[in-house]
């Protein structure tokens, strides 16, 4: 009985939708991006305790939440030879039990505060983080202090974490993209500390003992090599009082902090590595090139150049490789600016048959950045994406803490937080092209392709000079382990 009503109602909705669609698109092209909104955030504050612990705070009031990270300024770059993954294992064990709490009890204590303890290591950083409501912050910092200063490093937990990591690596090393990325990284940084995988390898992890973990902790986990980063509903006076309450008794060893070995070794003589993964159904393509470290004055120009090249769905690599040609589900690049050296990494996963074509396309897009200025409308759109991503990243206290931590680890002033949008906005097309001309030279590029080698080997070897191509089985790849 009601069907005629619903039929006529649906027809009316359809007609209305057509009218709305027509009136909603009066332009042949999308409107230009709006001007960036100013970042509403107080300038970060910093102070140092007598024991050397630095405290950095970004205040954000209105919601009673605080995020905290205790950073130790040492990470995978201090892994000893043949022990890749030691820093990662050490950091992972910080939240797997202390001298006074088992791993389950430690997790339960954090959950009782409404938070979760997390720990990890990267390049030049290891540490523990938590987010809680402001009234619970004192107790939460007590848990962080115990995790960092008094970890148990129980043998059973070490064995468990090692087994979990090995399982993850077993899966990861079946992916051509992962293998190609590891090979390209090794080609670029050689036998320097940056040349090995931060998470370790199937060969290196079994060599690591509890004594190795304990030794690293004793050498590197010290207040004069650490920073407490806080963001949220707390003032500097209270932050310093809590820092003194929980960390003042932490004492640095008498000796100086051990020196770190060279991190960026000499690039490989080969410019192309082909990694044979048998009958793999796909190929992973990875191109790496050297860049200045994070403290470089032209870092912002590099970040914008990467946004144009491969940073996001509308970037040139994704447009050319995925959207126009359908050669991959996704193609992109990332700028990895570390404390002592940086790299640009482009990555694509494709069919074995199209690997050579993808390599050529990636190279061509890098060359285009070098030779041709970026049009103003494209540059404005890519900068808007970059600025928008940054603005979203600091909307939460946890994200804000992460941005502050990145500044601290890279050695940049924490005040850069409040000037980042203006700095990115000031980058023009000339600056992007100048950066590309200076740093994207073809001679510095190192390319790795992993997959069914017999399909793409002949086509790729013709693109380099004789002696500059290396062929290797996946299980025999040198990862510095």
Provide keyphrases for this structure:
481 residues; alpha+beta; Cytochrome Bc1 Complex, Chain A, domain 1; 2 domains; six-stranded mixed beta sheet; disordered N terminus
Average pLDDT taken over every residue: 92
CATH superfamily of the largest domain: Metalloenzyme, LuxS/M16 peptidase-like
Number of H- or I-type helical stretches? 16
Portion of residues in helices?
40-55%
Gross morphology is: globular
Spell the H/E element sequence: HEEEHHEEHHHHEHEEHHEEHHHHHEHE
How would you sum up the major sheet?
6 strands, mixed
Low-pLDDT parts are: 1-13
- How many domains make up the coordinates? 2
What's the count of strands? Answer: 12
CATH class group of the largest domain: Alpha Beta
Cα gyration radius (Å): 25 Å
């Amino acid at each position: 009985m009601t069907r005629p009503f619903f039929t006529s109602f649906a027809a009316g909705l359809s007609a209305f939708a057509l009218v709305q669609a027509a009136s909603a698109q009066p332009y042949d092209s999308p409107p230009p991006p709006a001007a960036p909104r100013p970042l509403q955030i107080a300038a970060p504050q910093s102070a140092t305790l007598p024991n050397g612990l630095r405290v950095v705070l970004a205040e954000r009031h209105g919601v009673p939440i605080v995020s905290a990270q205790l950073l130790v300024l040492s990470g995978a770059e201090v892994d000893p030879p043949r022990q890749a993954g030691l820093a990662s294992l050490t950091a992972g064990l910080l939240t797997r039990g202390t001298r006074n709490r088992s791993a389950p009890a430690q997790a339960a204590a954090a959950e009782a505060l409404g938070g979760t303890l997390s720990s990890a290591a990267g390049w030049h950083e290891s540490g523990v983080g938590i987010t809680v409501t402001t009234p619970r912050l004192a107790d939460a910092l007590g848990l962080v202090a115990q995790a960092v200063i008094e970890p148990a490093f129980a043998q059973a937990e070490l064995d468990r974490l090692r087994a979990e990591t090995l399982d993850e690596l077993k899966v990861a090393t079946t992916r051509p993209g992962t293998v190609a990325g590891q090979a390209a990284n090794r080609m670029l940084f050689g036998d320097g500390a940056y040349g090995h995988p931060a998470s370790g390898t199937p060969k290196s992890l079994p060599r690591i003992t509890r004594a190795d973990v304990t030794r690293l902790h004793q050498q590197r986990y010290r207040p004069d090599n650490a920073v407490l980063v806080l963001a949220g509903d707390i003032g500097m006076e209270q932050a310093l009082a809590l820092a003194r309450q929980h960390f003042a008794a932490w004492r640095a060893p008498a000796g100086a902090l051990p020196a770190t070995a060279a991190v960026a070794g000499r690039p490989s003589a080969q410019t192309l590595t082909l990694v044979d993964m048998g009958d793999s159904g796909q190929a992973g393509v990875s191109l790496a090139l050297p860049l200045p470290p994070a403290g470089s004055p032209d870092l912002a120009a590099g970040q914008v150049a990467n946004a144009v090249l491969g940073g996001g769905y509308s970037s040139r690599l994704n447009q050319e490789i995925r959207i126009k040609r359908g050669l991959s589900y996704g193609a992109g690049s990332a700028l990895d600016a570390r404390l002592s050296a940086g790299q640009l990494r482009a990555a694509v996963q494709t069919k074995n048959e199209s690997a050579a074509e993808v390599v050529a396309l990636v190279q061509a897009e890098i060359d285009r950045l070098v030779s041709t200025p970026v049009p103003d409308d494209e540059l404005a759109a890519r900068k808007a994406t970059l600025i928008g991503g940054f603005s979203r990243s600091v909307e939460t206290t946890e994200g804000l803490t992460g941005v502050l931590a990145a500044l601290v680890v890279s050695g940049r002033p924490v005040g850069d937080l409040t000037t980042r949008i203006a700095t990115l906005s000031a980058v023009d097309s000339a600056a992007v092209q100048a950066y590309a001309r200076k740093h994207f030279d073809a001679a510095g590029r190192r390319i790795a392709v992993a997959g069914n080698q017999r399909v793409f080997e002949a086509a790729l070897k013709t693109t380099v000079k004789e002696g500059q191509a290396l062929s290797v089985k996946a299980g025999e790849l040198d990862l510095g382990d």
